[in-house]
Amino acid sequence: FCYFPQLQIIEGFAFGKCKSLYKILGDKIKQIGDYAFDSCINLTHIDLCEVEHFGSCCLQSTSLISIQNTKAIEINGSFLNIDTLQQIKMENLEQINSHQEFQNCGNLKFMDLPRLQYISDHMDLDDVFISYSSSEYAKKNFPIQNNQITRQNILKSRFINYPTMIALKGLILIEQDEIPKFTFERQKIMLFAHCLNVKIVRNDAFSKCYQLRRFFSRQLSVIEERSFNCCLALTRIDLSKIQYFKSESFRYCHSFISLQLSAALMLEQHSFNSCLGLRQIIAPKLQLIINPFSGCKDEVRIVSGLETAKQNKIFRVCQEQLFFQEILAEQFVERRDFRNQLQKMQQSCFVVRRYGALEKEKQK
Prior knowledge:
alpha/beta; Leucine-rich repeat, LRR (right-handed beta-alpha superhelix); 2 domains; four-stranded parallel beta sheet; 26 strands; LRR_5; Surface_bspA-like; LRR_dom_sf
């Protein structure tokens, strides 16, 4: 996330393809340039109320659910390919100039446009309702629905009303020991999967679960091709029992930094392809490496006793392990432990001070 309390202008391409960015904190943004947040597919929170100018494709392919704005008069293809978008409220919007303005926003259901005066012909918004408070022009072009009903529905669950898929925000499986092929593919809003006894994850089982941050299983031992392909936000998964990593099993998992592969014997071709954040793999039993890190941004350290590996600019085999600061997921483990340590020290100091005070009283 980013915290910008005084930020007013975001220029073009500023955060383009920051695929793990999920929140922008700041309520004074007035201008967003072209492609500023293009392909920030985990971005779900940003205050757009004061924005006066939206650049072309500035919020394309994000995960926004609701857009509210009080200043902008027009939009310029700013909200393309947002398939999670359900509601738009723009108090000053006067015209929608392109028939492709909300292209691929298939779940858009409700708009509140009090000043709308013009809309392009051939707009494909047949399933979209307009509020009673919208302009007369808007009411002539869209069916009317009580906006309070829609708002209540969104408050109950911001992730419902997907007509073509089941939208899961989290997954808990107790008895299941295998996840079949394609079972949870494209669950774009799933945040966690708690699968206690799952041993096998088949091909594409969690492929393109863009917001999946944590996968937990006590028994995970087999991962097949593309099992976690394009899980861009995945940071926590226990891989200590897996011996063979199949092709593209973790392709485009940008949020990995350091992985513990205690039982790994082989890394197949492209198994960690384009994991842009990956810096280190700890694999003491590793025997064979077949170009697993193509597309990675920086050199990947492999902590292993393997001596026959051909080292290149993509990876380097070494003996010493590096330690990294933890990244934001669901919990800050290091900070929690440090806080607990401080609390114990505080209690100890209180006891010492109390004991010292009692000794002084006895001496008097």
